[in-house]
Amino acid sequence: MTLEQIAASKQEGLDTIGEEFGQKVDKSQDELLVLLLLLLSRLSYDEGGNLVSSTDNYARVEALMAEFKGAVSRSSYYDALVFLANKIDKQADLTKEYYKKLGFDPGLASDVGYEEQMASMFDDLTNLETNLYAYIRNFILASIASGSARSLLEGGLQDIMVGGGTDKKGRLFNMAVLTADTMFAVIDRSFSYALGKALGIKRFRYTGGLINDSRPFCIARDGKVFDEGEIRSWGRLGDWKGKIPGTDEATIFIYLGGYRCRHWLVPQL
Questions:
Q1: 52-74 burial, b if ≥16 CB within 10 A, otherwise e?
Q2: Residues 144 and 246 in one domain
Q3: Which of 121, 262, 96, 106 is nearest to 199 (CA)?
Q4: 108 and 234 assigned to the same domain
Q5: For residue 225, what are the β-bridge partners?
Q6: Mean pLDDT per segment of 10 residues, for the chain of length 269 residues?
Q7: Whole-angstrom Cα distance, residue 103 to residue 200?
Q8: pTM, whole model, 2 decimals?
Q9: Do residues 11 and 208 touch, judged by C-beta distance below 8 A?
Q10: Residue 173 has what pLDDT?
């Protein structure tokens, strides 16, 4: 591939990862909702179809949640995480290939890796499950305490799991996609910048193009070349829309425009 083709492939990865990962998470949410609704048969209801507020019902919630947790670990949500890991590895391979085309040997910077950041991201993505479990468990317990109708319980769980249509997604989707979309770019930029720094690159092009909701921060920089000192100065600016907390004159190379920013710093000779 040419430099332009490699750069285009890297940009495509940044532009599409949120949608592609989101589709897989969406699928897992649908699967898990079906199971969760089936598990509601473990609870006791009165003749009117309302939850019975009893010690036995409260105790059943723990067993119900334990089975649900086991199902999540076997669900396509984990397939989505494997997909994400493979995409990150592919992005790193493209970065290495880009530097080779520039005449550098990425092997000279063999200690530059991204495994720790990727492990941290996956910790976050699996901890999202814990947050989801707590939310579902607390909702079911509240429903038992209030003697809710089963139809209301099912409707509430559907809202939690899959949301209310195209404009409103489930809690797992919203949390997972924001984390993955942001961290995919952060990991990609971390590896690319660390490799460039190790190989002596001092100038970068702010690349990624513009979309309908591009931030003013990115609009002002898109397509322009900056040296290391100029980029560092951005970290001393005040707040801007979407800025990631902790952005400073060092981390600006990694966080750039902020959450879900799809720009990256292309090395310039």
A1: eeeeebeebbeebbeebeebbee
A2: no
A3: 106
A4: no
A5: 205
A6: 92 93 89 92 94 94 90 86 93 92 85 81 80 89 96 93 73 86 91 89 92 90 95 92 92 93 91
A7: 12
A8: 0.82
A9: yes
A10: 86
Strand order in the sheet with 225-227: 225-227, 203-207, 264-268
State residue 167's pLDDT score.
58
Question: Do 149 and 94 share a domain, yes or no?
Answer: yes
Contact residues for 97 (Cβ-Cβ < 8 A; gap 6+): 1, 6
H or E element in which residue 143 lies: helix 115-145
Residue 149 amino acid letter: A
Cα distances from 116 to residues 119, 127, 190, in angstroms, run 5, 16, 11
From the CA atom positions of the chain, what is the Rg in Å?
A: 23
- Identify whether residues 106 and 158 lie together within a single domain: yes
Domain total for the chain?
A: 2
Q: Whose structure tokens read 């010690």?
A: 55
Domain residues for the domain of 146 are: 3-200
Residues 228 and 157 both lie in one domain: no
